[in-house]
Design goal:
Elements (H helix, E strand, L loop, with lengths): L1 E9 L31 H13 L2 E5 H9 L13 H9 L2 E4 L11 E4 L3 H11 L3 E5 L2 H9 L5 E7 L19 E8 L5 E7 L10
Amino acid sequence: MKLTTMTQVTVDGVTQGNGGASDEDRRNGFDRGGWALGRGDDGTHAFINQTYQRADAFLFGRRTYELFAGSWGSWTAQDVSGWEGVWRALNTRPKYVASTTLTDPAWSGTTVLPGDVAAAVRKLKAESEGELQVHGSGTLIRWLLENDLVDELTLIVMPVVLGQGARLFPETGPDLALDLVESRADSKGVTIQVYRPAGRPRYATSA
């Protein structure tokens, strides 16, 4: 399977607390949650729905998995007007969680990957066709990139600067070149950028 990621980020790279509830994630005193709510137009909503429907399986970090299980995993079709594609995909496709502490997941169709996660993900990628998607799960995405396991990276960039919160990419870390394969902007200023990892960047040398 091809491993792809899709992440909502602010212009300054924050991923924390993007959901509809302002108190979704208050770690480290974060108080600016809910920044993605209502930002995209119908075209962006369709893109997100279509992306989820394309998935053959999902991979999560524990925190994102528990947030999704408590929302998408408990809602009915009547609760998700406009987002039926996301809801249906999450509740019918296999879900994998990278966690050493989760032992008894309640969401149907969930498998925990508690051991050598890199080996488990490589096995998933090698054993079948299709697409293994990662949504949210910023810590997991950084780890997957560091281990050269990501085939495609989608960033949905919201036109807002928060000035606080956990970011997708830390201030220090490994470097990575990216090839842009798709880009679009919607009527509300949200941009969607699809990248493929392309090894290390090239740096200018002194004359």
